[in-house]
Amino acid sequence: MKPVEIRVDPLQPRTDDLARAAEIVAGGGIAVFPTETVYGIGCSESNPDAVGRIYRLKGRDESKPLSLYLERPADLYSAQAGVPPQAVRLVNAFWPGPLTIVTQRPGGPLRGYRCSSNVVPGAIASLAGVRFAGTSANKSGGPEPRSAGEVQDDIRAGCDVFIDGGPARIGRPSTVAKALAGSVEILREGAISAGAVGYFDYFMVLFVCTGNTCRSPMAEALLRTRAAQALSLPESALEDAGIVIRSAGVHAFGGGPASENALLAALERGADLSDHDTRPVDWKEVMEADMVLGMTRTHVEHLRARSGRSGGNIALLDPEGGDIADPIGGDLALYRSVAARIDGMLGPIEEAVARWFRKKADRRPPDGPQIA
Q1: What burial class does residue 13 get, using C-beta atoms within 10 Å of its C-beta: 0-12 exposed, 13-18 middle, 19+ buried?
Q2: What's the pTM?
Q3: Distance, CA of 76 to CA of 64 (rounded, Å)
Q4: Which of 250, 305, 330, 366 has its CA 20 to 30 A from that of 36?
């Protein structure tokens, strides 16, 4: 039987046309469709017969899973629990766009996700009400089709609905990046350069207190000093090395200095707060940081409630569960004791930073594409 053929405007496809394609997919059919990179082929992930047909049409190795197409970037967080900060950074930077993000929930298998800037695949997923899984519409190892006319006859004949959206705007495959807790790796360089994706391979620690004038700035400055010494780097070179250490306050206004006693207490421990500017919590940073460390349980509860993360990267600085009381208004002796307590808790965090730094230095490019 010949596939149903639908021609759409890639910028403003008619809902009625896409609803027809979605109906076929929801009923177990296979769709060939346009994206901004190359043409794709997909089906409902929950239909094993349709999935099997795609593997046979492509001659694809069944050990390579299909990627899941999403309508909106935020859909990743409902599609998968425990999205690591590295994947969040890539979502915020590149989606919708020509990047396939391979990640995993804690303890789960690797999975690829795609949020195309061409609305067609995401609309099919939404209108069909299914997890829409797919890959490029070519024979495995062969050239990816950049237009409807480049889709091979047997793949065209083997689908149930064929959507012609004209030439792909980019005409190159998506870049594939594996984003796991602690690392970002290029599995295939495509429309986005490896360098652009690699920019987001960093380790970020964010300390949070109330006003960002005392506790969190001291923690930030002390960890920066310790990390630089541990890695034999000048503090000014930490961010170039991929180590980002910041602080913020849940009720900070921004633009003010650290308190005088905080500055003095930190300075006695070799850390400089003279250039500190107070800043409010940036919720994008909370989602993107590897470690978000609150000074009190109230801070942690606030951060988790506002970000929607029940745990993961948000924790109390004191591993034994104690609060670090605000020294505001206290004398220098009190600030010294608070600085000493904070400094005594930074060892494991310093080790995590150093461990990430060593692993990044050891990582090597993969032998070849893992997903096609």
Answers
A1: buried
A2: 0.92
A3: 20
A4: 366
